[in-house]
Amino acid sequence: MQFSDGGYNIESISEAVELLSQQFNMTDEEIERVSKTMSILNGYGYETNDMVRFLKMAYNDWGYSAEQSLGLIIEGQQNGMNIEILILNRIF
């Protein structure tokens, strides 16, 4: 994996890579894309652990990929829902 300086927080990426590697069977490229997106969402106040929990729920309950699940988080943010509402209500 290569994380060139793109304004990403290296600590949040490191945490995301570790958690994603433990929870999912992803390629290095998938982990890189997902962890970069998670790092951006950290800047909007989303916690890495909460995102991984949501990704796991969306994968297990709905068959969504990690990238599709992050899309739901982004869509929820744009529509005024935070991740806790998505997790608690299992909306969609």
pLDDT averaged over residues: 82
Distance, first to last CA: 32 Å
Report the helical percentage. 55-70%
What portion of the residues fall into strands of 2 or more residues? under 5%
Characterize the biggest β-sheet.
none
Instruction: Characterize the overall form.
Output: globular
| Number of strand segments | 0
Low-confidence stretches: none
Distinct helical segment count: 5
* Alpha-beta classification: mainly alpha
SSE order in H/E notation?
HHHHH
- Compute the CA-based radius of gyration: 12 Å
Helices and strands in order:
Elements lengths: L9 H14 L4 H15 L5 H15 L3 H13 L4 H7 L3
How is this structure best described in words?
By secondary structure, this protein is mainly α. It has helices at residues 10-23, 28-42, 48-62, 66-78, 83-89. Helix 1 (10-23) packs across helix 2. The longest helix has 15 residues, at 28-42. The chain starts with 9 loop residues before the first helix and ends with a helix. The model has no long low-confidence stretch (mean pLDDT 82).
Short description:
The protein is mostly helical and 92 residues long. The chain has helices spanning 10-23, 28-42, 48-62, 66-78, 83-89.
Salient structural properties:
92 residues; mainly alpha
